[in-house]
Amino acid sequence: MQIDKSSWQRRLKRYEHRFEKVLWRLRLVAILPVIMSLASTGVTFVLGTMEIGKAILSLHAMDNPSKAYIAELLGSVVSGIDLYLIGIALMIFGYGVYELLISPIDAARGEDKAGEGLLDIRDLDQLKEKLVKVLVVALIVSAFKAMLSLPIVDGPSLAYFCLSVLLLAVSGFLVTGNLGKGNRH
Fold this sequence. Notes:
Number of helices: 5
Radius of gyration: 25 Å
Largest sheet: none
Structural class: mainly alpha
Shape: elongated
Strand content: under 5%
Number of strands: 0
Distance between the termini: 64 Å
């Protein structure tokens, strides 16, 4: 019994087509990191709000505040901002994974062009660039918070403080200056 070559090729083509359909649908498993990153965004926004709210609520106890108390309050506010930035990074990641692997977000590309900002992600390089920018800003904010409690008591501690300020300034320049110019023509 001899199998016709063309029927064999058709059968093989059908199997290939079925496999490709399954493979294409398997990309939908990426919905899990999308949902988890967006849920994490909500959690970090709530935590940031609680941190800033705690600082605001403790203001009523300020009769004669010490520098340490003020630094602690400012640290709480900066921690809240840091949590917001981490939430934004998680949101960018979730939107990016959805856009790249599942489907473009039609609502973001409406008539008002609201989707042309930070959440407009069309390729992996854009996702990477936007995440790096937000995460570097979050790290700058974290370093600023650490600098608030840095005691300056002598020359070397002042030098470390100045070096920290310089590194923050260079980081800010690199994020706003060089990273953004690489992909624009």
